[in-house]
């Protein structure tokens, strides 16, 4: 696409020098501006950690303590040993259910997406559009009926309630189907000629070539499960709660003891931050992959 | 698709419907089965069951569930009903939040992306910093920002006092209570949109800007005539997804203001959830979720259209 104002005028040396200087100032300015914003973005995290390291009396001290004057780990000790808040148990609950949910989602979605993208059978298109159209229905509509289902199945306060109900979501199928469709059929033909059946094609051709898409779906599914709160808040309680849902009950107990509250908040934030450091590449890649491209 | 080999393809072995080879026409359905069963049981069935619950007087422990038709829907539009006032107050609050937060989130994420798409010192670090809060659970975000905006000893008021201002009781002043909620929302979700914008910006050909440079175009002109028009599909996508997310307002107000002061930050989801789980009025809550979903459906439909267009592009 050519812009109407394009001209082929050669640059003069003086003009280039001015431009270069202007570029240098503007990039310094941009850097300073970004630094200011970054400080504002990091301040809440700093304040969370700083508060968690202060003795309880210092958290509301006047004048304010900009950093912990006498840093202590007593808040963490209180959180980790409190009988009201089995943080270690909550963490294990979150880890187990999020991993099981993620594994199940990626496995079932990739099998279904493979069938829809690469195999021929009656009703293939119809089924694809059927599950796709379910994505149009806002998730909120299933909240109350699903909760009643959990009551009827006796799944309240069990891991089942955290693992199964949203595993049938259509997003993973949709995303993987898009990716699988783009893999050249020639590669599959070669394997077929060697006598591979559909499962072998899936395992040895499709899966290895789809690692970025599978990794992206894994990271998204895991973070979504790890951070979800509304559902766990109502289907699991006490010892069976997940970490973010536990933190919710925590706020009720420690509403005014900020040091302890922030220690609990830091402990809840930590696993997601660590996961982020490891999966940063896939997260950002995934956003571009699942978002619009042009 | 063409086969370059002249050797004839081996016919797959023949077998009955129980043989697990590719001649069996049932094999593709086996791949669909695990996901399909979960999908029917936990997505399709609950939606249909929700319709049943909202049109009956549903009580999980009773033996009969009398049919009441659209009674629970009618109540939502009847000024005399006990649900009317709070439901529509919550709807108004949520709509206000959408109107306040969406322009802020779209504009600021674009501004961040514009600052970051050209090389600048520490670019990877800045991108990580702005994206990072997005991986935190809403409980963490809510609890943390409640503490930052604490009326007495929060960081924000400490900074205000440090600047010689009076403290402002954000959490307990009607209207002002939206400030901490909006700040927390922008902090937690601007990074996702920024990343989508960054991807779109990297797709714009640099030659367009070089051409404009030769013509002496100002940076505003470049933005107005090159960047903005080329970003419009992305802006639409970001806006629609942000609107949908904003309608989901729940934890920000639950944890930061506890729906207060005077229920001025009560959200639809919070009201619906309390109707179901505190008042144990499942039918009424189910009806509310369908009415609310109807509103969301307008925006979901736009998003769906965008997605379909994307599918079309991939075929």
Automatic annotation (TrEMBL), chain A:
Which residue range or ranges hold the ABC transmembrane type-1 domain? 91-279
| Localization per Swiss-Prot or TrEMBL | Cell membrane
Q: How does it sit in the membrane?
A: Multi-pass membrane protein
Q: Which Pfam families match?
A: BPD_transp_1 (PF00528)
Keyword presence, Transport: yes
Q: Which residues cross the membrane?
A: 29-49, 95-116, 128-150, 162-180, 213-234, 254-279
- Keyword field contains Membrane: yes
Q: Which CDD domains match?
A: TM_PBP2
Keywords, comma-separated and alphabetical: Cell membrane, Membrane, Plasmid, Transmembrane, Transmembrane helix, Transport
Q: Which domain of life is it from?
A: Bacteria
InterPro entries of this UniProt entry?
MetI-like (IPR000515), MetI-like_sf (IPR035906)
> Which Gene3D superfamilies does its entry note?
MetI-like
Q: Which family does it belong to?
A: Belongs to the binding-protein-dependent transport system permease family.
Q: What is this protein called?
A: Sugar ABC transporter permease
Question: Species name for this entry?
Answer: Deinococcus aetherius
> According to the entry, what is the taxonomic lineage of the organism?
Bacteria, Thermotogati, Deinococcota, Deinococci, Deinococcales
UniProtKB/TrEMBL annotation, chain B:
Cross-referenced SUPFAM superfamilies: MetI-like
Q: Where is the ABC transmembrane type-1 domain?
A: 91-303
Q: Which InterPro entries match?
A: ABC_transporter_permease, MetI-like, MetI-like_sf
Database matches in PROSITE patterns: ABC_TM1 (PS50928)
What Gene3D superfamilies has UniProt attached to this entry?
MetI-like
Q: Which regions span the lipid bilayer?
A: 29-53, 95-117, 124-148, 177-200, 230-251, 285-308
- UniProt keywords, alphabetically: Cell membrane, Membrane, Plasmid, Transmembrane, Transmembrane helix, Transport
Family, similarity comment:
Belongs to the binding-protein-dependent transport system permease family.
Descriptive protein name: Sugar ABC transporter permease
What organism is the protein native to? Deinococcus aetherius
């Amino acid at each position: 696409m050519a812009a109407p104002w394009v001209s082929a005028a050669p640059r003069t040396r003086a003009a280039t020098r001015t431009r270069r200087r202007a570029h240098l100032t503007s990039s310094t300015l941009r850097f300073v501006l970004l630094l200011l914003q970054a400080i504002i973005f990091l301040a809440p995290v700093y304040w969370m950690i700083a508060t968690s390291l202060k003795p309880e009396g210092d958290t509301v001290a006047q004048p304010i303590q900009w950093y912990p004057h006498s840093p202590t780990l007593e808040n963490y000790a209180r959180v980790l040993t409190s009988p009201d808040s089995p943080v270690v148990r909550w963490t294990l609950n979150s880890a187990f259910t999020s991993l099981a949910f993620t594994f199940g989602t990626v496995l079932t979605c990739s099998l279904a997406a493979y069938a829809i993208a690469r195999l021929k059978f009656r009703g293939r298109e119809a089924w694809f559009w059927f599950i796709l159209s379910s994505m149009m229905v806002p998730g909120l509509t299933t909240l109350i009926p699903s909760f009643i289902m959990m009551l009827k199945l006796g799944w309240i306060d069990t891991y089942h309630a955290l693992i199964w109900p949203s595993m049938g979501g259509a997003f993973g199928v949709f995303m993987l189907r898009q990716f699988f469709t783009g893999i050249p059929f020639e590669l599959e033909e070669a394997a077929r000629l060697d006598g591979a059946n559909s499962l072998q094609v899936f395992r040895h051709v499709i899966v290895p070539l789809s690692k970025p898409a599978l990794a992206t779906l894994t990271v998204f599914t895991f973070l979504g499960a790890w951070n979800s709160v509304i559902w766990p808040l109502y289907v699991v309680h006490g010892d069976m709660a997940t970490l973010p849902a536990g933190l919710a009950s925590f706020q009720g107990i420690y509403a005014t003891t900020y040091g302890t509250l922030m220690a609990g908040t830091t402990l809840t934030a930590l696993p997601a931050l660590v996961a982020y450091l490891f999966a940063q590449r896939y997260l950002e890649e995934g956003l571009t992959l699942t978002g619009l491209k042009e | 698709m063409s086969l370059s080999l002249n050797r004839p393809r081996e016919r797959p072995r023949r077998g009955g419907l129980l043989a697990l080879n590719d001649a069996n026409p049932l094999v593709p359905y086996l791949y669909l089965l695990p996901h399909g069963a979960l999908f029917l049981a936990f997505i399709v069935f609950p939606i249909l069951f929700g319709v049943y619950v909202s049109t009956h007087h549903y009580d999980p422990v009773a033996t009969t569930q009398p049919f009441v038709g659209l009674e629970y829907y009618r109540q939502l539009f009847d000024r005399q009903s006990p649900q009317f006032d709070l439901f529509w107050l919550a709807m108004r609050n949520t709509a206000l939040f959408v109107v306040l937060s969406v322009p802020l989130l779209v504009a600021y994420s674009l501004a961040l992306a514009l600052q970051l798409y050209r090389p600048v010192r520490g670019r990877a670090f800045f991108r990580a910093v702005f994206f990072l809060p997005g991986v935190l659970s809403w409980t963490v975000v809510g609890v943390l920002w409640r503490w930052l905006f604490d009326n007495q000893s929060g960081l924000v008021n400490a900074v205000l006092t440090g600047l010689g201002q009076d403290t402002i009781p954000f959490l307990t002043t009607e209207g002002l209570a939206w400030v901490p909620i909006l700040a927390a929302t922008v902090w937690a979700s601007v990074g996702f949109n920024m990343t989508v914008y960054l991807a779109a910006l990297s797709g714009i050909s640099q030659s367009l800007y070089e051409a404009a440079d030769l013509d002496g175009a100002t940076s505003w002109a470049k933005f107005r005539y090159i960047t903005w028009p080329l970003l419009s599909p992305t802006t639409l996508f970001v806006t629609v997804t942000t609107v949908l997310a904003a309608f989901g307002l729940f934890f920000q107000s639950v944890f930061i203001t506890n729906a207060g002061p005077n229920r001025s930050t009560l959200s639809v989801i919070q009201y619906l959830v309390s109707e179901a789980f505190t008042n144990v009025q499942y039918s009424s809550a189910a009806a509310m979720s369908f009415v609310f979903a109807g509103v969301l459906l307008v925006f979901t439909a736009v998003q769906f259209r965008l997605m379909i267009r994307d599918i079309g592009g991939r075929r």
